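re: ur question from earlier - yeah i can do the single chain one, its not a big deal. heres the input i used so u can compare w yours
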Amino acid sequence: MAERKFTQQEQVRRQKLEELKALGIDPFGQRYDVEDYTKDLREAYGSCTKEELEEKKVMVKMAGRIMRRRRKGKVAFMDINDRYGKIQLYVRKDTVGEDVYEIVKRGDIGDIIGVEGELMLTDTGELTVRVEKYTHLTKALRPLPEKFHGLTDTEERYRRRYLDLIMNEEARKVAFTRPKIVRSIQRYLDAKNYVEVETPMMNSILGGAAAKPFITHFNALDTDFYLRIATELNLKRLIVGGMDAVYEIGRMFRNEGMDKTHNPEFTTIEVYKAFSDLEGMMDLTEGIVSQAAMDVNGTYEIDYKGHHFSLAPGFKRISMVDAIKEKTGIDFSQDLSFEEAKKLAEEHEIEVEPHFAYGHIVNAFFEKYVEETIVEPTFVYGHPIEISPLAKKNLEDPRWTQRFELFICGNEYANAFTELNDPIDQYERFENQLKERELGNDEANEMDTDYVEALEYGMPPTGGMGMGIDRLTMLLTGQETIREVILFPAMKPNGDK
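and the output i got, formated as tokens:
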């Protein structure tokens, strides 16, 4: 094995590590019971005057990473970061003692320390800890990225997220906001008596969505399994079983491309409610998004991708054919033949693939001429039956289904149905999906006879909805790429390692 080579700075830090050992200090520390955090201190004492703080004599015990330090003689100033932010430290040799000050002198930016002392305000009005006890906790053997530029290589930020979180306040904010969004959704649904459940991540049959799967091999059964592309079919089995109202927040895996809004491993929530329908799911989806916005941002108002709009309940609702008509003047609700629709597609530079039927053409028109133009929260409903194998037909026109998608700023955030609970119809839809696979649609569902059998025992009229947690987090934190809201996004292999 080749001998490791260290930079000059790394050599200096390793020398300081040895000096700490000589002083009887464990360079990588022991347990330290933190009692105070910057956020709480600023909220409680940030508005105090210097005299008021002196009178209160607030004692604190904190820990954090050194982000700035300057030492002159017998006095040292430092900034440390904890999980919430920065606070200044004031360390005097005659306060902490000569032996401890020798440890302070061997500190580096990046080291992790614990301090106890009195909260004070400097003459410039900065909240500061006058340190009385100083504890070295962890020696950083590598220097942090340069202070003012940090990690300027975006790819490196994602590869070394730990450094991004150390150096980038915005990255920390997103990381702590995402779980708040998840908790908001859970509280909202729990209050409505939904039950959170878990279903398998590996399935022997591909279904629940139109997507390319990851395939893995189960050695014990000597059988290939799919990593799940959706939780839908298993959750609806639970509705058949009488659980009535269920949801699952979990990882999905789709063997597809990566871009600003797609990662092959992502997180969704799927919700199913017996005796509900499309309208019920619209109300529920609206409530989830609005409540999450209020819980994490304190307002319904939002600025995103250069647009200002509201996430308050009362989202716009429009049918897919009406939305297409508004943009193109073409009315697909008319009784057009496939050949007429195909001719319109060719005239509008839309490629008609071998497996396309009438509904596929309608959907292609929507994707090309409408989707990216939607800014304010909008429920688009009435999708063609050909692209909705698990949704109930429209009773008045069986070409369309009781399905909606929620679009905001040109992106899809949720997909919902009045669920198909007719086992005969469902079997026929699965058969049609098999025909599409034969014609080259590798995202078509497979035949799931067990699910059809479950429906034959009787599933009540049901509403169901799926929503992307990653995209919702992007929206509520103002991020325009999914990699900013996934702590460890999928990356190309690093050729340098």
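Residues 315 and 334 are 27 Å apart (CA to CA). not sure if urs matches, ping me
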